[in-house]
Automatic annotation (TrEMBL):
It comes from Aspergillus ibericus CBS 121593. This is Superoxide dismutase. It catalyses: 2 superoxide + 2 H(+) = H2O2 + O2. Residues 5-85 form the Manganese/iron superoxide dismutase N-terminal domain. Its cofactor is Mn(2+). It is an enzyme of class 1 (oxidoreductase).
Length: 210
């Protein structure tokens, strides 16, 4: 059976994140960039199946980087769309939407502000393309800020929330002002989703079906 990963629909309208993230960025990011990861993932899986059939070990190995890049791109973007909610919607209010996660953040960082400052510093420290993540580790829900390079997915811990720091995520609107993008993103973070992933310890990538 041919691999059939598909582009998940956005859980809001393309202009729902304005004025923080423009409709133009969201349309290109979702319909073009994410769709390309999905297409290339399906192509890589088809090529891998054929290489496995013919037992072509060199070919099997050569496909793994494409699988990692495009499979990671599909996972990361599927998580990212759900990490955001319409500007000024109830889900973006942390006290209301993420009481358990907020308590854990305050316990570890001292305050939400100290956490967001630390997270923004990590985002701005990413060299080249990559992602910043708040992850939860182990049964006690220990929180950490992590980065992944290019489209590497989070592995071995729960991605509570992630921020795409590729230029395609902000450049059309923020140009080189990466700091402004990193500061503004909090206004469209979906804290309900972050709370759900933190409390239930789920990767919530069921729609990816890898
Ligand atoms: Fe992206």
């Amino acid at each position: 059976m041919a691999p059939n990963h598909t582009l998940p629909p956005l859980p809001y309208d393309y202009d729902a994140l304005e004025p923080i993230i423009s409709r133009e960025i969201m349309e290109l990011h979702h319909k073009k960039h994410h769709q390309t990861y999905v297409n290339n993932l399906n192509a890589a899986l088809t090529a891998e199946a054929s290489a496995l059939d013919s037992n072509d070990l060199t070919q099997i190995i050569s496909i793994q980087q494409k699988l990692k890049f495009n499979g990671g791109g599909h996972i990361n973007h599927s998580l990212f769309w759900k990490n955001m909610a319409p500007y000024d919607s109830p889900a973006t209010k942390v006290e209301r939407s993420a009481p358990t996660l907020l308590a854990a953040i305050e316990k570890q960082w001292g305050s939400l502000k100290k956490f967001t400052d630390a997270f923004e510093a990590v985002l701005l420290g990413i060299q080249g393309s990559g992602w910043g993540w708040l992850v939860s580790k182990g049964k006690k829900g220990f929180l950490e800020i992590e980065t992944t390079k290019d489209q590497d997915p989070v592995m071995g811990s729960i991605p509570v929330l992630g921020v795409d720091m590729w230029e395609h995520a902000y450049y059309l609107q923020y140009q080189n002002n990466k700091a402004s993008y990193a500061q503004n993103i909090w206004k469209v973070i979906n804290w309900e989703e972050a709370e759900h992933r933190y409390v239930h310890g789920v990767q919530d990538i069921a729609s990816v079906k890898l």
